[in-house]
Amino acid sequence: MSRKKHSSVEEEAQVDMTPMLDIVFIMLIFFIVTTSFIKPSGLDYKKPEASTATQQKSANIFIGVSKTGVIKMENRQVDIERVTANVERMLAESPEASVLIEADQEAEHGLVVKVMDNVKKAGIDKISVSAGKD
């Protein structure tokens, strides 16, 4: 009986990292897909206080109205006449959309009503106005 001699160079044990990397990337994709992203209106505003304020489901379309009368949608300044066209465009992208109007407490009431009216003209009935809780 002859025995094989051990080779002078021993093979090093190697760990295959591919399965671990696959799992890490799958988890990363899962967290990216399940994360809800907040769309800021692009305005700094002070919410009016309301004792009956309730938490609403997240809205798809955000409209900001500042105390100086600036209207912002998608971080762009928009004229009051263009609100309807912008909402119609966003409604085409997501037909079940709802609107959240984030108006400063010192914003003109008439301007906020005009924004709400233009949103209604675009065909959206689900309109919420942002308020803080007392």
TrEMBL record:
The keyword Methyltransferase does not apply. It is found in: Cell membrane. It holds the Pfam family ExbD. The keyword rRNA-binding does not apply. It comes from the Bacteria. InterPro entries: ExbD. Its main location: membrane. It is a single-pass membrane protein; Single-pass type II membrane protein. The chain crosses the membrane at residues 20-38. Keywords: Cell membrane, Membrane, Protein transport, Transmembrane, Transmembrane helix, Transport. Coiled coil: none annotated. Belongs to the ExbD/TolR family. This is Biopolymer transporter ExbD.
